[in-house]
Every structure is written in structure tokens, then in C-alpha cells.
Design brief:
Rossmann fold; alpha+beta; 22 strands; seven-stranded antiparallel beta sheet; single chain; Jelly Rolls; globular; 3 domains; five-stranded mixed beta sheet; 18% helix; 12 helices
Length: 563
């Protein structure tokens, strides 16, 4: 990424932009979708890129001044990409509203089968226009990126490549329920930023009315609903935030979430794919790039980067669009800039903040190392003596206060220690209630005592069951298809998936493992969860090979796969 000698091989910015707003494309069922078309003012045919979302095509303006992602401004959905950047270099940019959103007809389908089919039809409609040369790609981050994967599984003939920038591939695990715990904070406000009015919840397509009403009445009696007027209102007035209603009614994985997930169909993506993500995308998108990397069997590249703000790229979004342009120069224009001659993976190694190329993920030279939780908050590479420590969550924690728990700390690094790859925590623990929520933070503590977040993990205790066929030691996989109450007082192992990361602990730095029973809005005002509403005593057990440990992907110094 630092060597950009290839930039001079890209198409130069020579075109002015011609706007054709409020064009309508007819779908296979007769519904018409609204599109804004931006193309080079010169005559002729050009490759095209499609940006597709429910945020409203009218707000996808690339302003000279960018701003951090802000719920107050509602600018989170300004993610279609820099129109002038691409059009000036000989591409047509089509920005379209999904059905039921913006100026499009129809009923919003929330990345469901209809929306995916619409993507297919839009690609083919674009390819048939007299300004398109038949080569079509897609552009955009987050929602715009998630639908790229989903639409690619539909295999439209004229889709020649995609470039999903921050795209989850598992709607349940990566987005709505982290470890089986509802991601309330984000969906508390997300619906309000869509260009969609009141809408009937989609869960009625999957469950009988009687079952939905039974679940609704049951939820009214749950303590987490009783202490939250907001959630009570969402349950009673289901069209106010219909997606949150869906999520409350369906707390387990199943057809509703799988229809909106690409992970079971990644092998159907047969077009070249450029995967982009950021290390701080642990609450939603980061895991999607690694899952897509594993599941897509087509020409592919992966870049894992970082942003200045933990909430993600500045808005309107235009990060790394020179790399995306390079990708499309190759696959839409046949302009060989040497991109495919380079190693397939590019990583920002945090701590040193250096770029490095790799050939596979996880790295083949990984030394999987167990660090055992110890009394007095130690984290050491040898089993602990028998012992235990306890903490309790505070379901009524005051605003601005941080959750309490247990911390385990690696001794200060005597030399730089690199941790790159997926992590997993295996907790031996007992509870004094039949349910709990586990929240795991991994932090980097500097010699001056300051800390920065490295990555996170979550697990609802009643969702502890593992899928033995899909799990590996470094990536435990939970089916999340049912809830099993915890036997009170019994020591049970909780295998907790922690989002992949890359960090070099510089000499004198320490890795800190925080174990909590809840998170708080004070720690993250956007990504907070519907935590355990009952005070629960969590007891972590130590002792020999049967104790609790953190599995870390240690990368030996001096060894490398690619340069």
C-alpha cells in the first residue's frame, strides 16, 4: 500500500460528469427502482459500478469536507463512494434505492431474497444501457458492501467483479446477536437513518401470527424489557422499528437471518472479489472479510486496514478508492496494473503501524500459544495453581460508569511480541444464576498505564453449545439455535470466539484480558448490548490443564511469508 508506483498506470481524470437523476429500472415483478446515473459527458460506452442501499440516493453527496461518523448528523449511510473520482476516470456510477426505500416502489425487504434478485436485475439493466460496455462492478461500504456479496451469489451474467468494503457475511453472529447477545445500541437508532417509513415487520413471513404474539407476551414479562420503556414500546408498536421487533421476536439463528447472510453461499461468488476491512470493525464487519476469504473460490485480494476513528471511516466515505480503482481497472477495463502479481493479503500491523503482505489466513507460521488465567490477575504461558476468583455484574450501573469484572495481564514484553490472527478464550466458570452474559475485551497497555482496545468477544451463557464440526481450537463456533439454562453452581467451560486482530506489543507493553458480565454505553456509545438484567456472581476457576486459558496466535519474530 505504501508503494503506489502503479497509480500512474490508472486511467487519468479527464472526464466531466453528466448527471441523469431519477431514472427508473423495472424489476422482474414490475416494481420500479429509482436510480441516479452519473456518467462521463463524452460519448461512448464505459464500464459501470452500482451502489445500492436504503439510505436514499439523494444523500449520497460527496462533500469537500468530511466528518466523523455521527448519529446526530445521521451521516452513517453516506457510503456510496466518490462519484467524481470514478466518473472522471471513465466509469459510470449508478446509485439506486432499494425497493421500499427512497424514491423506489415496493416493500422494503432488508437484504432478503427480493432485494438480492433486484440487484441481479439492476446489474443486467445497467449492462443493457447504451452508455455501458457490458462490464459492471459494485461500489460502497457497509450496507452497500454487504449487498455486493449477496448479489454476487445470484450470479448476474454482467457482474464482472466486486469490492465489498466492510461487509459482514453472517447477519446473526456478526451484526444482530454477538455471541447470542442482542446488539441493542446500534439497532436502537439505525432504522431512523433509513429513507423508509413505517413498515410491517418481516418476521411475519417466517412465523405464524399466534407464535409471534406468544413470544411478544413472553417478552413483556422479561426483566430486560420491563426496565426498558424503549424496548416495551418497540414490542407494542411494531412498525416504529420493525427490524428491532424482528430481532426481539427471533433471538436464535434460523431462516430469517440465513436468508440475509452470504456465508452459506460464498462458493456461489464466482467473480473476482476485493475484500476490505478495518481491525476496529469487531462489532459488525471485520469477521465477514475473513469468512469471505475462506469461502470464496475466485480471484481475490484482502486488505485489512485501520481508521482514525473507532466508529470507522469519515463520511462521506472515500477511503482507499485508489486501490478500488486499481481493482476495477484490471477487471472492468483489462488494464493490467500489476495488482494480481502481488501477494493476495495486505495487513496493517498495528503497534508498529507497518504494512505487510501475506499469502494466507491464519498465517501458516502461527505459534498457537495458551496463556493461562492465574490468581492475582496474571496471564502466563504455564498452567495455574488451583484457585478461583469472582465478580458480579451491576444491571443498574449508572450512566458514565464502567462495568466491573476481572482483569488478567501478560507480563510486560521484554521484546516486541506480535499477535496476528484469530483468538479464543476458554473459561472454566460457575454462575449463581441460570443465565449470564460474558463480555471480553483485549487491550494493549502502554508503560504509562494508558490502554487501547485491540479486539472483543461475547457469549450468552445459555448459547454455550458448540458445533463440533464447524469449530476449531482458535475459532469456536456456536449454532445459536436454542437456549440451554446454566446448571447453577456447576463448573462449565465457555468457549468464546474473539475477533481476529493484529497487534505488536512493543517492549514494555502488556496485553490485558478483561472479563466482564456486561458492557456499558460509557465504553462504547454505539455498540452496546442487551446485557444480563439480573445481578449474577461469575466465578472463574483455575487449576492445571483443566483451567481457563486464552489462546493467542503468536507470530515468531524474523519469519515472514511474503514481502
Amino acid at each position: 500500500m505504501q508503494d503506489k508506483s502503479w497509480f500512474k498506470k490508472l486511467s487519468p481524470a479527464v472526464h466531466t460528469v453528466k448527471e441523469e437523476r431519477d431514472q427508473f429500472a423495472e424489476m422482474r415483478d414490475g416494481v420500479k427502482l429509482a436510480c441516479d446515473v452519473f456518467r462521463p459527458a463524452a460519448g461512448g460506452k464505459f464500464p459501470a459500478i452500482l451502489s445500492f442501499s436504503p439510505y436514499g440516493k439523494d444523500v449520497q453527496r460527496v462533500l469537500e469536507k468530511q466528518h466523523p461518523h455521527s448519529s446526530r448528523l445521521g451521516n452513517g449511510g453516506q457510503e456510496a463512494g466518490d462519484t467524481a473520482f470514478f466518473v472522471s476516470r471513465g466509469y459510470v456510477h449508478v446509485i439506486a434505492d432499494t425497493r421500499g426505500a427512497g424514491d423506489s416502489e415496493g416493500i422494503y425487504d432488508f437484504q432478503g431474497e427480493k432485494e438480492q434478485q433486484d440487484g441481479y436485475d439492476l446489474i443486467e439493466w445497467i449492462a443493457a444501457q447504451d452508455w455501458c460496455d457490458g462490464n459492471v462492478g459494485m461500489l460502497g461500504m457497509s450496507y452497500f458492501a454487504v449487498v455486493q456479496n449477496l448479489i454476487a451469489t445470484q450470479q448476474p451474467p454482467h457482474l464482472k467483479a466486486i469490492a465489498p468494503f466492510e461487509a459482514y457475511t453472517d447477519r446473526y453472529r456478526h451484526s444482530v446477536y454477538h455471541g447470542g447477545i442482542l446488539n441493542e445500541g446500534f439497532f436502537h437508532q439505525w432504522w431512523e437513518h433509513l429513507s423508509i417509513g413505517a413498515s410491517k415487520p418481516l418476521i411475519y413471513r417466517y412465523l405464524p401470527v399466534e407464535e409471534i404474539e406468544r413470544r411478544r407476551q413472553e417478552l413483556y414479562q422479561r426483566p430486560e424489557i420491563q426496565v426498558s420503556p424503549y424496548l416495551h414500546i418497540q414490542l407494542k408498536y411494531e412498525t416504529k422499528n420493525p427490524l428491532l421487533f424482528d430481532f426481539l421476536i427471533e433471538p436464535h439463528d434460523g431462516p430469517y437471518y440465513r436468508e440475509r447472510s452470504a456465508y452459506e453461499r460464498l462458493d456461489r461468488i464466482q467473480v473476482p472479489t476485493l475484500l476490505f476491512n478495518r481491525w476496529s470493525g469487531w462489532p459488525i464487519h471485520l469477521a465477514g472479510s475473513f469468512q469471505a476469504w475462506e469461502g470464496i473460490n475466485a480471484p481475490k485480494k484482502m486488505y485489512i486496514v485501520e481508521t482514525e476513528y473507532q466508529t470507522g471511516p469519515m463520511r462521506p466515505w472515500r477511503d482507499h478508492q485508489d486501490v478500488i480503482l486499481r481493482w476495477y481497472e484490471h477487471w472492468l477495463k483489462g488494464n493490467d496494473t500489476g495488482m494480481m502479481d502481488e501477494p493476495p493479503i495486505t495487513l496493517l500491523i498495528k503497534g508498529r503501524n507497518e504494512w505487510r503482505c501475506e499469502n494466507e489466513w491464519p498465517l501458516a507460521r502461527t505459534q498457537w500459544t495458551k496463556y493461562w488465567l492465574q490468581p492475582q490477575g496474571k496471564l502466563l504461558p504455564q498452567p495455574a495453581p488451583v484457585g478461583q476468583d469472582s465478580f458480579s455484574n451491576d444491571p443498574y450501573i449508572r450512566p458514565g460508569k464502567f462495568s466491573q469484572g476481572l482483569d488478567y495481564v501478560l507480563p510486560a514484553a521484554e521484546q516486541d511480541l506480535e499477535i496476528t490472527g484469530p483468538l479464543a478464550l476458554y473459561l472454566k466458570a460457575s454462575l449463581d444464576q441460570a443465565e449470564a452474559t460474558w463480555f471480553i475485551n483485549i487491550k494493549n497497555r502502554a508503560p504509562d498505564g494508558s490502554t487501547t482496545m485491540v479486539t472483543k468477544g461475547w457469549l450468552r451463557a445459555s448459547h454455550r453449545k458448540l458445533d463440533a464440526h464447524k469449530s476449531t481450537a482458535h475459532k469456536p463456533y456456536h449454532p445459536h439455535e436454542l437456549s440451554e439454562p446454566v446448571p447453577v453452581g456447576e463448573v462449565i467451560e465457555y468457549a468464546i470466539d474473539i475477533r481476529d486482530t493484529s497487534i505488536v506489543l512493543l517492549k514494555g507493553h502488556q496485553l490485558v484480558l478483561e472479563v466482564r458480565g456486561q458492557d456499558t454505553a460509557a465504553e462504547d456509545p454505539v455498540w452496546y448490548h442487551l446485557c444480563n438484567p439480573v445481578e449474577t456472581r461469575h466465578t472463574i476457576h483455575y487449576g492445571g490443564e483443566e483451567g481457563s486459558y486464552l489462546l493467542l496466535p503468536v507470530i515468531p519474530a524474523g519469519a515472514s511469508n511474503a514481502n
